[in-house]
Specification:
The protein is an alpha+beta fold. It has two domains: 291 residues, 3-Layer(aba) Sandwich (Aminopeptidase), CATH 3.40.630.10; 109 residues, Alpha-Beta Plaits (2-Layer Sandwich). The protein is 30% helix and 23% strand. The strands form four sheets. An eight-stranded mixed beta sheet has the order 1-2-8-3-9-16-10-15, with helices on both faces. A four-stranded antiparallel beta sheet has the order 12-13-11-14, with helices on one face. A hairpin with a 5-residue loop joins strand 1 and strand 2. The longest helix has 22 residues.
């Protein structure tokens, strides 16, 4: 178990930030570097069927120690880190036995973890924490998950007295840019169900997530010399401003929590002649989700009615759906995870994900896939940290799940 921190630090140093502007699989070369290193590591600790597919997917098997007709369980984590913040030259550091004070990450640029701003730090007083240097993210999302899965696999290989069936492992590319399940071969993976190790703080157990869509709003303005623009000019930037103003301000990410959905303006680029906006639309409730998309279409219609047909267009694309619908018929897998946490001395915290995971799409592809904690906090930025004890506990939970699954009858569920 003590290897989990060493592994995580080693993985975190590799820049695997995904690139949404690159259509290759994977979208960044660092992911291939990590895949090849992991493949050799898994072979070295005794896993079988270690395969890479050229698309950034790595699969492997922990052979069964018992033949009980139990289900095949899978564990999944993603290789990439978010492109929202730099993942280059990540320098993880261990803060031993955190005392409860301010942790200075980058004195030069005044970047620090202050409990006054991040009160969750106080939950980890006395524990060893891993942080980055203030100029990069840390990458616990999701390299902590990878380290936990690899460490659990090695532990099971070295302790054949622990009963478990066949265990499948997969590390996926480009989850952070919504492509993690694009080329996932569910049939070849061969698991009856799986768990993503992609959650946050210790104890998280999630089987609900947002329904998600993206919206590309294109605006065609009319550029006329401002001295002769009366009743002629259409300023695309001001049309964009009008569009934004017609959305409910209370339904922005900064004003929502728990089961509240939102419209999030991701980008706005343009000039008088043309402008383009990108939104993401999120809601746990499917009906509210559909209504949000209709609202975007209605605002588009109203603006065209005012300025003229074709001034504005909306391209709305569904991205993923709430996995709850696919998990409900297989709730026993959630109970297995819950019991595995309790046996590890972890209090389960059942929450709805305010985001998505590979597991959401995989559940709709026929692989029920709840999400459990990897231990990190404050993902996608310089304030990210992960308590080592949380990673150890996640590793224990994986081992416990494997043992509990061995008691299940594959044909009884």
């Amino acid at each position: 178990m003590e290897k989990v921190a060493e592994r995580f630090i080693r993985y975190a140093r590799i820049n695997t930030a995904s690139n949404p502007k690159n259509n290759n699989f994977p979208s960044s070369p660092g992911q291939n570097i990590l895949v090849l290193q992991l493949a050799e590591e898994l072979k070295g600790i005794g896993l079988t069927e270690v395969e890479t597919d050229g698309n950034g997917y790595l699969t492997a098997t922990v052979p069964a120690t018992v033949q009980t007709g139990c289900p095949v369980v899978g564990f999944i984590a993603h290789l990439d880190t978010s492109p929202d913040f730099s993942g280059e030259n990540v320098r993880p550091a261990i803060i031993g036995k955190y005392s409860g004070g301010i942790i200075t990450l980058d004195a030069e640029n005044d970047v620090s973890l202050n409990p006054a701003e991040f009160p969750e730090l106080l939950d980890y007083i006395g524990q060893d924490l891993i942080v980055a240097g203030g100029k990069t993210l840390l990458g616990a999302d999701d390299k902590a998950g990878i380290a936990e899965i690899v460490t659990a696999a090695e532990f099971l290989i070295n302790h054949p007295e622990i009963p478990h069936g066949k265990i499948r492992i997969c590390f996926t590319p480009d989850e952070e840019i919504g492509r993690g399940a694009d080329r996932f071969d569910v049939e070849k993976f061969g698991a009856d169900f799986a768990y993503t190790l992609d959650g946050g703080e210790i104890g998280e157990l999630e089987f609900e997530n947002f329904n998600a869509a993206s919206a590309k709003i294109s605006i065609k303005g009319k550029s006329v010399h401002p001295g002769a623009a009366k009743n002629k000019m259409i300023n695309a930037l001001l049309v964009a401003h009008k569009f934004i103003g017609m959305l409910p301000p209370g339904q922005r990410p900064e004003h929502t929590e728990k089961y509240e959905g939102f419209f999030h303006l991701v980008s706005l680029e343009g000039n008088v002649e043309k402008a383009e906006m990108e939104f993401i639309v999120r809601d746990h409730d499917h009906e509210k989700f559909e209504n949000k998309k209709k609202q975007l279409a209605e605002i588009t219609r109203l603006i065209n009615a005012e300025y003229g047909r074709g001034v504005i267009s909306a391209e709305i694309t569904d991205q993923y759906y709430n996995m709850l619908e696919k998990i409900l018929p297989a709730m026993f897998i959630v109970e297995i995870a819950r019991n595995a946490m309790v046996e590890a001395g972890v209090t389960p915290k059942v929450r709805a994900i305010r985001g998505g995971t590979d597991g959401a799409r995989l559940s709709y592809m026929g692989l029920p896939c709840p999400n459990i904690f990897a231990g990190g906090l404050n993902f996608h930025g310089p304030y990210e940290f992960v308590p080592i004890n949380s990673m150890v506990k996640a590793t224990e939970v994986i081992v416990n799940i494997c043992r509990l699954v061995s008691k299940q009858n594959k044909n009884a569920n």
